[in-house]
Specification:
Blueprint (H helix, E strand, L loop, with lengths): L1 H32 L5 H63 L4 E6 L5 H11 L8 E5 L4 H8 L6 E4 L16 H20 L5 E5 L8 H8 L4
Parallel strand pairs: 1-2, 1-4, 2-3
Length: 228
């Protein structure tokens, strides 16, 4: 609504500008016509100038309409993307809650901006006994699109969640060099809260995205779980 209002104001301004130009040119021509021996020449010149102004205005209005249409399409596309992402998030949440209710063990892979996360995920998928027993949750920070695209390429083989808070963290000047660790801590806190309090898992294996995975990782954790 606000964009349409602004567009209306812009169109009205352009129209007003054309009227003002017309009046100024016409007034100037009237003054010149008294001294001109050929009034028809001045009228023809005025007509030509007015036509040129209307053509320029028409081009400007066309550009404005295209810009408004482009903005509208972009806004609608973004709204559709948000709705689709929300539906995927809700469906993933339902699936993970169902798996946690069956005693599954979550495998949380913490990722940020390393496209080499593919190596880690390939190894996890290769060695895990089953997707329902060990669902892989890839929690991504940083909003790094190339990494996000790689994770999404695994489709239903993994669950892709994104840490939503990308705001800057205040760090005291003397601890500025540790700012990255503060962001990592925030990411860990959010992902673990999602895993244990939203998806309702009671057990989780934490994996960093740059780790090489041993073939016996899952049997090792299953064997040592009673000791924990």
């Amino acid at each position: 609504m606000r964009r349409n209002h602004l567009a209306g104001i812009l169109v009205l301004s352009v129209f007003t500008w054309v009227v003002i130009i017309y009046v100024l040119l016409y007034d100037r021509l009237l003054h010149n016509s008294f001294a001109s021996p050929d009034p028809s020449y001045n009228l023809g010149k005025l007509e030509t100038q007015i036509k040129e102004e209307f053509k320029a205005t028409a081009r400007l209005l066309s550009d404005v309409r295209r810009a408004i249409e482009t903005q509208r399409e972009a806004r609608e596309a973004e709204e559709e993307r948000v709705v689709a992402d929300d539906e995927v998030r809700k469906e993933d949440e339902r699936r993970l809650q169902a798996l946690s209710g069956q005693g599954a063990i979550a495998v949380i892979v913490f990722a940020c901006s390393r496209v080499t996360v593919r190596r880690c995920l390939d190894q996890l998928i290769k060695h895990r006994p089953g997707a329902e027993q060990f669902p892989i949750i890839v929690s991504q920070d940083c909003q790094h699109q190339p990494t996000s695209d790689i994770i999404d390429s695994y489709a239903s083989q993994v669950f892709h969640i994104k840490q939503p808070d990308q705001s800057e963290i205040y760090v005291p000047p003397k601890e500025k060099k540790f700012k990255g660790y503060f962001k990592i801590a925030r990411h860990y806190g959010w992902a673990l809260n999602q895993t244990f309090f939203v998806y309702n898992f009671s057990t989780a294996i934490i994996i960093e995205d740059d780790l090489d995975i041993s073939a016996d990782i899952f049997s090792y954790f299953l064997a040592t779980l009673p000791l924990l």
